[in-house]
Amino acid sequence: MINRWRYGVLLALLMGLTAGCELESNKQIRQQAQKAAENALAREAEMMAQKHAAELNAANQIGQVMVAVMTPTAGNKTGGTVTFTGVASGVLVEAEISGLTPGQQHAIHIHQYGDLRLDNGKGTGGHYNPEGHDHSLPSNETRHAGDLGNLTADANGNASYSITINNVTLNSHHNPICGRGVIIHAKVDDGGQPTGNAGARISQGVIGFAKPAQ
Ligand SMILES: [Cu+2]
Hints:
The protein is an alpha+beta fold. The chain contains 2 helices and 8 strands; from the N terminus they run ααββββββββ. α1 (2-19) packs antiparallel against α2.
C-alpha cells in the first residue's frame, strides 16, 4: 500500500518535470525517481513471492512427521519420544515421557541446537528464539518459538502431553525446527525471565525426520 502511494507520488513528480522545459538536473532527478519507483515495485513483488512460498511450504508439511528421541542426561533417568506432526493449523507436538518426578511439572522446550555431545544437555544452547521475543508460556502468543510449556507427571513419573503450535514449521522458511534440540527440565517453567526458572536439563533429544508409518 505504501509502495503504491510512493509510486503515485513519484509518477506525479515525473509528469510535473516532463511538462516544463527540462533542465539537465531535472533529467537526473527524473532518472533517479524512475529508478526508485522500479526498485519499490521490485521489492513489493519479492515480498509477495516470499509470502506465497512460505504459505505453500506450510501447507506442504501437512502429514509430515518428525521425532526427537529423548535420552537422560548424566545422573538422570528421563526419556521417551516427542513427535512433531504437520497439521492444517500448524505443528502438533506429542510427548510420551517417563522417568519424571511423580506428580511434578517439568518444562519442555525446543532449544537452538541439535548437539547432544555434552551429557548435561547444554550443547543444545538456549531456547530456540528466532524472533527475539521474551520467554513465556504457550498461553501467550508472543514467546520464544521453542516455549512448549510444561509436562505433568503422574504418580508413576509418566507424562503424556500434546499441544498444537503455529509459530514454527517442521522444515520450511518460517522458524524451522528440524535438527534442533528438545530439552526437558528438572522443574516447572513458571514463565519468568529469561528462561522460566526451570532448572537442570534432565533429558535431551534432537528433532529429525521420522520413518513414515508402515
Ligand atoms: Cu529449556
